[in-house]
Automatic annotation (TrEMBL):
The protein's name: Methionine aminopeptidase
Chain positions recorded as substrate binding sites: H85, H184
Species whose genome carries this gene: Terrabacter terrae
Keyword Repressor: no
Function of the protein: Removes the N-terminal methionine from nascent proteins. The N-terminal methionine is often cleaved when the second residue in the primary sequence is small and uncharged (Met-Ala-, Cys, Gly, Pro, Ser, Thr, or Val). Requires deformylation of the N(alpha)-formylated initiator methionine before it can be hydrolyzed.
HAMAP family (UniProt xref): MetAP_1
Amino acid sequence: MRMIEILDAGELRRARRSGALVADILATLRDRCTVGTNLLDVDRWAKAMIIDAGAQSCYVDYAPSFGRGPFGHYICTSVNDAVLHGRPHDQVLADGDLVSLDLAVSLDGIAADSAVSFLVGDTRPAESVALIETTRRALAAGIAAAGPGVRLGDVSHAIGTVLSGAGYPVNTEFGGHGIGSTMHQEPHVPNLGRPGRGYRLRPGLLLALEPWVMTDTDELVTAEDGWTLRSATGCRTAHSEHTIAITEDGAEVLTLAPR
Ligand code: MF3
Ligand code: CO
């Protein structure tokens, strides 16, 4: 039987450290991504920071049913029409590219997972800015809705309302998830849901909330690498993710970017 993990106080302290590490690495990588940066360098930098911190990659040996063989890399780098599970490859970032970085690591036995989308260089296409902002607002709405006694459907509904309210189609094949001793756990957190339905959240539960959208389609295609998921129409995409802990009085974001 698959179980929903509830963390005790000591595990929650470790989860905070895992979350801070993921946030720190992502913030550093985001700063380093400029015009001319190669995605393979981003992967090398991620690897070095994970090892340096004494943490383990949740990705390198990961071989789920939705990918071909082990992922083999340390971070997901998804550019423009690529939205999820972007496998780092020999590609140089250009002015105006929309990059999504998604990182999960395990430190002292607890995993944390976060993703950020941003534009490279000085060109800021309005539609891309809107896509990114929408996933951020959806994530904030999901976090604001989460708390003890709240139903999973309430969180999904809060996320989905922002995404569809902005006019984007929503794909429900991939969404958020429980996280703890491993990266992907029960429950699944779809980015659309019905209020008042589903599992009742409890203090000590860790969730990764991850709204993502594609401009004009809800259909994904898998790239030739067997991993990278792209929009079926070639349109641009965005993704925002935080790991949160349900506490006695609300939700605590564990992967907030350092100031
Ligand atoms: N961290 C991703 C998520 O947000 C999963 C990436 S799986 C990988 O759930 F194998 F592609 F890395
Ligand atoms: Co995730």
